[in-house]
Amino acid sequence: MSRSHTRTRRLAFALAIGLPLAALVVFFAWPVAAMLARGLGPEALGLLGAERTRRLLGTTVQLAAAGTIGSVLLGVPGAYVLYACRFPGRRALRAIATIPFVLPTVVVGVAFRSLLGRDGAYSFLGLDQTTTAIVAAMVFFNFSVVVRTVGTMWAGLDPRTADAARMLGAGPVRVFRTVTLPALRGAVASSACVVFLFCSTAYGIVVTLGGTSTLESEIAVQTFQLNLDAAAAFSFVQFALVALTLTISSRASRATAVAMRPSAEHRLRISDLPSAALTFAVVFGLIVAPMASLAVRSFRQDGQWTLANYRLLATPGKGAAGGITVVEALEHSLRAAAIATAIALAIGVPLAFALSRPTGPARARRPPEGTGAKRRRVPRGRSPESAALRAIESFAMAPLGVSAVTVGFGFIISLQGPPLYMGDELIPIAQAIIAMPMVLRALLPIMRAIDPRLRDAAAMLGASPARTLATVDAPIMFRGLGLAVGFAFAMSLGEFGASSFLASDDNGTLPVLVSRLLARPGGGNYGMAMAASVILGLATALVMTLSEHTRERNHVPA
Asked: What are the angstrom distances between the C-alpha of 93 and each of 81, 268, 281?
């Protein structure tokens, strides 16, 4: 390779790393640091040990723990039935179980209100606006996380150890307790940590269902009341809780590997019927029921079937002093999501190209002359370059673990004042920062699977770095681009935490408007919220369906 090509490649690598990092520093590190700095101010520090702060932290942890326990207890049997057993309709049940995770949190909250509220199918339980309803919605939202994480591992376990235990007389419960569960311990612990993180930052669910206050909901209340020091104190506590959860999750994900086989599935057995019955009850009673109730209630008003709720979408609703209509809010959401997706790709795609480059094989270091020492080899993957790339990747993935409420509050105190004085344009930027890690997660495995010898062969044949990029890397990257676009667009379309801080009355997004409609009294506003949630859920599901179709067509692994 010529020196000019080497210089060009180094410059391109520096730009691919430097420009995205600069954007992350300005629009992620700076707002979060500003929030942390304000949280450590004199007035905010005085609130950290206050009784109210301890009470909010206790409520947040208790709700998150209950949601995590429920998700694990129901998700582990579901993982076994949906991934380790074969039966007709399994693929459809898997798809249904996955739907809640891609729904906006506001839609999930509205769906449970329609199910548990007055005239709802589960209204007899008396759970409307209770903490139990919040926990149930958290389990609804995170059931698929446990099922997919544990199920993928369960389907690949070597069945010979369990078969040997059965031949020695062990019953199903003992086989699970002594053989299967130890092998799945790492996957269960890792998924539990992820679920706890999602539950502790479930702002949209808590706001729409009501009944209690958590750290995130209180941050919003204090911000809207302009008590920024109190909001900063609560944000600091929330950030510490998230950081602790991520640390535990990182350790859990480094569990000892177990022997795997390509597939260890078996036909549904009689001994599997209790797990199958529980899984079917969860899928239809906890997942299908809220979504069906939401769809049905959107066509009901004053006890009658009607399209009035959908006709009202072109109006601002009752009790609003001006404001925008649902149709206008949908337009704002689609435009912001499109801009956010473009920004997320502009940051994530160059980073994926740069981070997927191998750092080079181990090289022998020549010792000083006359010392008689032997050459020392630098182990592969432990070079300073690889360590730097791992640090950059961790920094780029950090927005995935930081609460959207924290990001939104950080934007308010750092970017809406001097020196930038930014306004409504912060909405798509915040959405892009939150969605960008999913772009990396979609592209990095594909880019890292490229055989480096293909690039070497292109270079030996005289291809410039730009041509190698266009002919070797780009065609393979495009296989995962549809999934990356789908994740970014869907997450931006349903994003509520940061947008609720940044959206003005005339530029609100659809999730924000749904929350505002629920807060206004009147059956018309409630019906509009139902109809708007159906539209938002369908739009998100359509985007993810198209991206999944692109993934399957291009044979991209999930």
From this structure: 10, 15, 11
pLDDT tens-digit readout, 485-531? 988 999 999 999 999 889 887 888 999 999 988 888 777 888 899 99
Closest CA to 326 of 536, 111, 101, 110: 536
Task: State pLDDT tens for residues 32-65.
Answer: 999 888 888 887 778 887 888 999 999 999 999 9
Q: Using alpha carbons, select from 204, 226, 197, 231 the residue that is nearest to residue 215.
A: 231
Burial class of 400 by CB neighbour count within 10 A (0 to 12, 13 to 18, 19+): middle
Q: Which two tokens stand for residue 30?
A: 């700076």
Tell me how far apart the 2 most distant CA atoms of the chain are, in Å.
Answer: 95
DSSP-derived letter for residue 122 is: T
Residue among 302, 540, 294 nearest 435 (CA): 540
Q: Decide: 206 and 197 in contact? Cβ < 8 Å.
A: no
pLDDT digits (tens, 9 = 90+) for 114-143: 999 888 899 999 998 899 999 999 999 999
Give CA–CA dist 477/455, Å, rounded: 14
What is the rounded distance in angstroms from the CA atom of residue 397 to the CA atom of residue 399? Answer: 6
Closest alpha carbon to 544 in 485, 479, 476: 485
Alpha-carbon distance of 275 to 285, in angstroms, equals 15
CA distance 154 to 97: 17
Report DSSP state, residue 422: -
State which amino acid sits at residue 232. A
Beta strands 300-301 and 304-305: pairing type? Answer: antiparallel
The partner residues of 376 in beta bridges, in order of sequence, read: 365
pTM: 0.83
CA distance 316 to 529: 11
Residue with token string 């996955």: 98
One DSSP character per residue, 210-266 reads -SS--HHHHHHHHHHTT-HHHHHHHHHHHHHHHHHHHHHHHHHTTPPP--B-S---E
What Å distances lie between residue 352 and 9, 221, 431, 452, 475, CA to CA?
Answer: 15, 38, 19, 15, 14
Q: How far is C-alpha 235 from the geometric centre of its chain's CA atoms? A: 20
In angstroms and rounded to an integer, the radius of gyration of the C-alpha atoms of the chain is 25
Q: In 3D, which of 199, 95, 183, 207 has the Cα closest to residue 147?
A: 95
DSSP 177: I
Pairwise CA distance, residues 84 & 151, whole Å: 7
Show the tokens assigned to 342: 């473009």
More confident residue, 6 or 509: 509
SS3 assignment, position 304: strand
Cβ atoms 241, 57 nearer than 8 A: yes
CA–CA distances in Å: residue 555 to residues 243, 404, 476, 550, 558? 35, 32, 11, 8, 9
Helix ranges (DSSP H) in 398-497: 404-415, 426-448, 452-460, 465-468, 474-494
Long-range contacts from 293-296, C-beta under 8 angstroms, 24+ separation: 293/111, 293/114, 293/115, 293/120, 293/121, 294/107, 294/110, 294/111, 294/114, 294/115, 294/530, 294/533, 294/534, 294/537, 295/534, 296/114
Q: Give CA–CA dist 443/328, Å, rounded.
A: 33
Q: What is the pLDDT of residue 554?
A: 59
